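check these tokens.
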Amino acid sequence: MIDTCQRILDEVDRSFVEFADMRIYTSDELQISVRKGTTENISSDKIEGIGIRALVKGAWGFASVASLEADAIRQTLGSAIKMAKGLSNSIKRPASINKEIVFDGRNEIKHDLNPRDISLEEKLELTQKVDRTLSDYDSQKIINSIARYSERLQREQIINTNGTHVVSDYGIYRLSAMGTSRSGDIIQNVSKSKASSAGIKSLFDWNIDEEMTNLGKRAVELLDAVSAPSGKMNVLLEPSLVGVYIHEAFGHGSEGDAILANKSVLTNQLGETLAIPEVSVIDDPTLYGLRGSFAYDSEGTPSQQRDIVKNGKLVGYLNDLTSSTMLEGGNTLNGAGRATDFRHMAMPRMGNTYIDNGSKSLEELAQEIGNGVYLKYSYGGYVNPSTGEFYFSSQSGYLIENGEITKPIRNSGMSGFTLDVLKNTIGVGNDLDLDAFAGVCGKGNLTGYQPMAVSAGGPHIAAKDIIVGGK
């Protein structure tokens, strides 16, 4: 198939088409869900097709086809070229690609435990145990429990008119649980997951008895917790919340397409001091086994560690082939072009994003806070990259009184502006957790909304004068 695509790509009129690429995509997926003792869903899906881009007079055209037949591929390439030609008269800023960039490589997954070697019955039994253990902690107060198992094994074969030829295998695997507790009118939600890109060994090695008992205990204890206070106050953030914060509030703003479109507060900020010197922000998809790790991006560029903030200064963006060519100021191509599958066009995305380790213990950070709140366990978030305004919520937390962590509090929210929080950070912990949050990042472009597997984390951090909402 790759040879057929290469022959068709070689037919492109290079005097007219500036650049074109093909991404041959195949994946096998399995989803299992169990709710309160009942197996709700077992489904498998095989996806295959080709995504094709063409750059004509500074305009991109994209088309995809769920067929591996030569005639269909040739027609789809023609559609992408025609679309680009039609758009070329209306674009305000022509796109460009460095035509000297060429990659050749092959990546095979080195599974710690290959999901193909484990039966469906064993995977279902594992999922059922997660649900059962959580629900059995307190079957009266835990009114709902859900356990989910998911796996995806995929291959991307990428060729382009520059001469790139990359074949990359990739896997993402996840086991997750969510519980809902209730007492009268009070309802609380908690969740926990284990994820990997190396195989499913860590999912089967997960201490389900301990993890689900602790999750059930947290769900029940939250029913008696006090409401979180509201207003501007000092805040201590647990690593999963640090990860979601830096992902939502800063990571999206550093993506090259947002910078190009002037829709990020980080535009024209390279070299500027945006945080205290103790803050360094990194996105590293090369880390072994994390959910957001990959060897090559969807344009065939090898992955690498990307420094975004170093000792408080903004030093780089997340770039694909387009943004790295068009952005000035020393920005380099760093393998950030990712696409969910063949039906979507690649765009700059994060992999594993985190704040690097600091020097303070949890006790020292609580002392720095004095009086405030300790927020724990992410419940999702949102950011507007163009303004830097963000919001995210926590599942639980504690009051901090006179430097001591005291009474438990229920779920809360935190909001503000990216640059304010980084400058208001008063301490960075020494307990780095790279995989504190293993979830899904959503982002859209011209080809629609694209969910993407990511990880995020960091150590505990303390910040002053943050807006907290208690309900």
Summary: The first strand starts at residue 19 and ends at 35. The chain has a mean pLDDT of 94. The domain at 2-224 is CATH 3.30.2290.10 (PmbA/TldD fold). The chain is about 20% helix and 40% strand.
